[in-house]
Amino acid sequence: MDKEEGVALQNATVVILQQQDSILKDFTRTNEKGDFHLSIADTNDYILMVSYPKYGDFTQFFKSDQDHDFGAIPMQTMAHLIEEVVVTGRLPVVIKGDTIEYDADSFTVEKNAKVEDLLKVLPGISVDGDGKITAQGKTVEKVLVDGEEFFGDDPTLVTRNIRSDMVDKVQVYEKKSEQAERTGVDDGERIQTINVELKEEARNGIFGKANAGVATDKYYTGQAMINRFKGSQKTGAFLVTGNNGTTGLSWEDAQSFGGNDSQGSMVMINNGDDFESSEYSGSGIPRILNTGVNFSEKWNGNKNKINLSYLYGKLNSDGESSRVTQNNLEDRTLVSKQQATFDNDRSRHKFGLKYDLQIDSLTSLTVQGGANRREEKSFSSDFTSMTDRQGEMLNDQERNQTTQNNTTNMDINAYLTRKFKKEGRSLSLTARYNASETSGNQDLWNNVNYYGDGNDIENSLIDQRKNKKNGANFTTASFTYTEPLHKKLNLSIGYEWNGQQQSSELFSYNKDESGNYSILDSLYSSDFDFSTLSSTYNVALNFKADKWRINFTNRLKTDKLQQENNFTQEDLSRSFLTYNPSADLTYELSKSSNLRVSFRGTNNLPSLNQIQPLRNNEDELNVYLGNESLKPQSNRNYSLNYHKFNALEGSYIYSGVSFSQQKDPFILNATTDAQGKTTFVWENLEDKINNNLNFYVGGGRSVIRDWNVNFDLHANINRGDQYNYINGSLNNAKFTSFSITPGLRRSMTSGFNFGLWITPGYTQQKASLQPEFDNSGFTLRSNSDIKYFLPKKMEIFAELNYVYEAPTKTFDEKFERILLNPGVSKKVLNDESLKISFIVNDILNQNVGFRRSQNGNIFTQNSYDTIRRYYMLKVSWDFNKTFMQ
Amino acid sequence: MKKYLIILFLFSYSLTSAQYAYFPTEGTITYEKTFHIKNLIKRHIAALPDGDFQKTMMSNMVDKAPETAETHQKLYFKGQKYAYEYIKEDQPAAVENLMRFGLFGIEVNSLTDLKESVYQASLDFVGTKVVLEDSLLDVKWKITNEYREIAGYETRRANGITLDSMYVVAFYTDQIPISAGPGAVHGLPGTILGLVVPELHYNIYATKVDMTPPVFPKNSGQKKKEKPMTRKEFYDRLKSNIGQYIDEKQYNLIMSMILI
Using CB atoms, which residue from A32, A53, A152 is nearest to B21? Predict the structure, then answer.
């Protein structure tokens, strides 16, 4: 009841709190008579608290051991309570406007001290036994961490958890009320606030890994990676060496290289360069040394970022290879068999730079540059004999080549984007310059014997030295401007200019009487300059609504190609105007399923090499001639995709079909003479359209939920045509392939883990000229792995790679290979940072390098030396150390 | 165990009761929820084990993300029932992209019946409709002597612990007697007008209290098609698929965002 008026209060809040910790036990409201009753099921010490808006609280202690009648509770209005004011004042440390800022490091606290201990020593701040903080005489109502209402304002939970050495600054200020901050209308209310700013990089340390392994048959591997952070500065270095096929960092390691930050990590673009992939994919036994350093730094509040890297790599591989090629002509079949030995040496230096500058909140600039130098030396020796199907000898060729090339390349590009206040409006400018130069020489010795009818032997011997020099530079400049026409509709217009200059010099010299290569062979020497100028105009519309996204782009391009023969002073020039539309439509059925339809039109321009190739005699049995009447090939590509994901079930499904057509496609016209020498010319295939169809469907779901086993399935159908002319007759090679891959997977951190996949498939390859020699056959592949976690931090594991290709009419032998790589490992040390493993590579010693391919009417089968069985003992160590400053 | 009864009479000399303050039994409260996105992403990063591929991606996101993002909600209450619903609104492109990622801003619309002790919620979990039906969320409260004015109401601070260890700070007013709150957090002697969940980096404050009779949203908290799950069923179900790919710490973080 109101103490003054003596009136009963309805809806007053009655709360029962536990006396020891003031945990809320129960609550109720008074009824219209001002009465309440509450039942408590146990015996304990409680507090009764009664409150009413604009009234002071009434509290009373009691023990719930009997019925209590509290009688009439007098309530006093707020106006009658005397406000208590505590005034303490000391000098602040730094005053910035209305903020008092303490530098945390200026105050000494014990090691491992918490924020509360720090606050206690700050002048002007006091902390009582309950953790209640008073700053500048006012009770602190808010404690923020990095400006945010983190951990609420509860001092006991907050300030006792954060270590004081992680704190950079402590700021004390009077914060405006939420209301005022939200509305911008100041109501004059202020809340005493402490803000704890953490150190930008509370961490400072190094991490990395190192591993080394030795194996039988002189195989070895070694890798090391170290990263150091200090504030916003990150430095990394790595080294990879070995001869077991590992050429670089694994994708995972490359990601964390440079400090776990994409801004700081090295820009790793896998452009098919052997130095930048993690596994060697070529032939022979590779010996590799690959190393690099990387440095990155951010400053000025992350507005400036720089990344510098230097890489060096050296790769040597040698071995033997063999190749069987079957060339199906309209009336006969030529089979050639080649044996080769090779020895390649490559080395590369590469320097990279990336600089990002946030000029203001709307403008950013990125500059990237790079330079590299490659040296390549190779030697190869091969012997090829060609027969017809009946075994009649047509020709044989013996060839030795020694090649040496040096390439330098530099590249710089700048990218500037500017956004505007209006959302969706933007302007971007790019500029790029690239220059490269390759110079080298080649010693070619080539002896060909042509066997005519009977015993007629014609011999052709080439013994030449060739000096080559190629230079190229290109410049690109472009702009794109995007303007929102409507909230949901954007218009982009763009222009790009490309200029390219290339020069190519090739001088072939024959031997003179004294044995020096000094007589110029003008047929196989050339000196050309090329230039290409192109302009591209883009207009695109983007529509984005709730569920729809539509893009429509128009691209108009003019190209001017020019070739100048410096020997004959002859010019050749071509101009092309092409139009390429593309459209893309995405319909979002839900957040996790969508349907996408797209159309793309593109053109392939004939290259100058196709119009007028440089005469070369490196391969005398295969000669390329030019075609001045080539016109562009136009391509159209249609595709439809669907995917759906159910997060609750962990299941997904996807499907798609794509269809592409090539009109006037470039095809090879090959003319093979009686002795097996083939001359190639590029031509447009008129009147026929090359079609390709690809259909795929797949999905996956959890099958045994309790065991975390997932099932997935992928199926694929590919169908297409390939055309080519063989001695004037049109050959149509049709191919169809089907494959299906079901798989089962469990990947957890304990117990039995596996990933089992099997892919049966059928490939049909049929050439119209000689349908009896098709290359159709059944294939079976499997890529599987199993792993079992044993006690005592041990694991056993195995990987299986199985390939089976059935015999075909072209290749009458089946091909089968099982690669099984088992191993066992044990983690040691308390933090499991050291791992010892024993691995067997190819335990069945079955590995052979092998590849089959078809190009028009030519079927090829390659086999080459590769890495086989070895037993390796490997030690790897992960390290991670942080120092607090 | 003995059962004791506490009875109290608030007498008035005139034996009539007074209504000094107005205690609404129905109305609509508008809330603004502020996410500290940068810090939330940083917390995700901290929850990830070293070398996790998400780490790089998220570090990149931190730079691009805005400091905060706001969403708005309405709470409709009448008698012992209340509905909590997100208001559809456009977000800046940067925020929208982050929301698509699914790490924050999962919008859980709910209907709570205090009398029957039933909590129903519906949400879109990255494209999949999820319906929850369970008893009320258990929150252990500690009342403090701290006050703050929110939307013109005097509120009192209470610190709570829920879902085993999630720390929440609530500001409730005893002037709106229904024991309601934004989302699943409730159980104070009045309506929660301010809620801060430090570990999830958001705070919710009421901006407006309207006492006209509310129009409850249709289908709030219930969709016929989906079979309702309890919190535990939902937690275990997702754990068996998504939980396989992400670390437990991060999984619990995502779950708490939905369950609180």
Answer: A53
pLDDT tens digit string along B204-248? 999 988 888 888 877 644 445 678 888 888 888 888 777 767 777
Contacts of B207 in chain A (CB under 8 A): 182
CB–CB of B185/B162 below 8 Å? yes
Return phi, psi of residue A289, to 5°: -135, 120
| Order of strands, sheet of A125-127, starting from the edge strand that comes earlier in the sequence | A125-127, A133-135, A138-139
Number of helices (H), then strands (E), belonging to chain A: the values are: 5, 47
- How far is the C-alpha of A464 from the C-alpha of A196, rounded, in Å? 77
**Residue A343 and residue A788: Cα distance in Å, rounded?**
41
Q: Which of A458, A487, A336, A341 is nearest to A400 (CA)?
A: A341
Tens of pLDDT along A557-566? 999 988 888 8
Would you call A256 an interface residue with chain B, using a CB distance cutoff of 8 Å?
yes
Give pLDDT < 70 ranges for chain A: 1-6, 68, 75-98, 106-114, 121, 123-124, 129-131, 136-137, 145-163, 166, 176-189, 198-204, 231, 247-282, 453-455, 773, 856, 882-885
Dist CA B91 CA A484 (whole Å) = 16
For residues A159 and A87, is the Cβ–Cβ distance under 8 A? no
Asked whether the beta carbons of residue B51 and residue A256 sit closer than 8 angstroms, the reply is yes
Q: Which residues contact A506 (CB under 8 A, 6 or more apart)?
A: A466, A467, A468, A524, A525, A526, A527, A614, A616
| A561 close to B (CB below 8 A) | no
- Per the CB < 8 A criterion, the answer to whether B202 and B166 are in contact is no
Q: Tell me, yes or no, if B174 comes closer than 8 A to chain A by beta carbon.
A: yes
Map A9-47 to HEC letters. ECCCEEEEEECCCCEEEEEEECCCCCCEEEEECCCCEEE
**Could A65 and B4 be called an inter-chain contact, meaning their C-beta atoms sit closer than 8 Å?**
yes
Angstrom distance (rounded) from CA B29 to CA A135: 34
The residue of chain B nearest to residue A746, with distances taken between CA atoms, is B244
Question: Which DSSP string do the residues of A475-528 spell out, in sequence order?
Answer: EEEEEEEEEEEETTEEEEEEEEEEEEEEEEEEEEEEE-TTS-EEEE-GGG-EEE
- Which amino acid appears at position A462 of this protein? I
Question: What residues of chain B, 99 to 138, have a C-beta less than 8 Å from chain A?
Answer: 100, 124-128, 130
Distance separating alpha carbons of residues A550 and A587, to the nearest angstrom: 9
DSSP assignment string, A173-212: EEEEPHHHHHHS-----EEEEEEEEEPTT--EEEEEEEEE
Rounded Cα distance, A503 and A58, in Å: 95
Q: How many residues does chain A have?
A: 885
* Residue closest to B59 by CA, chosen among A305, A300, A205, A831: A305
Q: Point out the residue among A6, A67, A649 whose CB comes nearest to the CB of B5.
A: A67
Taking an 8 Å cut-off on Cβ atoms, the answer to whether A645 and B124 are in contact is no
Q: Which strand (E) or helix (H) includes residue B158? A: strand B153-162
Nearest 10 degrees: CA dihedral of A639, A642, A643, A644? Answer: 170
The rounded distance, in Å, linking the Cα atoms of B186 and B20 is 26
CB contact, 8 Å: A712 with chain B? no
- Cβ(B113)–Cβ(B184) below 8 Å: no
Helices (H) and strands (E) in chain B — how many of each? 5, 13
A839: its two tokens: 């691995």
Burial of A410 (0-12, 13-18, 19+ CB in 10 A): middle
A335-377: per-residue pLDDT in tens? Answer: 899 999 999 999 989 898 889 898 888 888 999 999 999 999 9
Does A570 reach chain B within 8 Å, measured CB to CB? Answer: no
- Chain-centroid distance of CA B69 in Å reads 16
Give the minimum alpha-carbon distance from B92 to chain A in angstroms, rounded to a whole number: 8
